[in-house]
Amino acid sequence: MKILCISDATDTLIYSENAPERYKDVDFVISSGDLPLRYYDYIQTVLKKDVIYVYGNHNLEDFDRAMGKSAIMGPGFTPIMPLVYSGTFLDGKVMRLKNSGLLIAGLGGSMLYNYGKSQYSEEQMKWRIAKMIPHLIYNKIRYGRYLDILITHAPPRGLGDGEDLCHKGFSCFLSFMERFKPRYLLHGHVHLVDMNEERVREYGETKVINIYKNYILEDESLGGKR
Known about the structure:
Distance between the termini: 16 Å
Number of helices: 6
Number of domains: 1
Strand order of the largest sheet: 5-6-9-10-12-11
Radius of gyration: 17 Å
């Protein structure tokens, strides 16, 4: 399986006229957020690849409606219809991809730092994880494993995160990896000034990868219709 992973910054390689050829063997695209939703439209139109995404703490257009919050009201208290964007929204959800059998889940957002949208305290993120547990247990019973890939925006605490509150990682992601053992945790949020900086770290049985801007994940053992 070959996955194009993106986060936080648009990429001239993807906007290039050669992009359809360059990424023709990619199975699908994963985004860890902080990208314009129109970027996902572009990718699905030009590359003809599905985009599975979570929100970061920026580029939050249509965030409230995507998260199931109250719709914006127009004149005369008429609901404004949500904008239609391409992509599969996975924030706070667990799903199985039918074609590959891949088990994936998403937990977007950053650490709470100024009470903006898509920001969570440690306890709030723990609660978001708790709501996933029944589905994860079902996966284990039905498919023999809890999860293949967890998509987050923020990193786990101590694994490539920052010391400022905004870029501090979540400690509960460490507990998640210990219990549910995803093969990969893919995150963004921490920008890489040098693209040769370390991206991949290991925690238990999980590879933690900073997918800032553009990263190709190749693993033929992922998924499986079990």
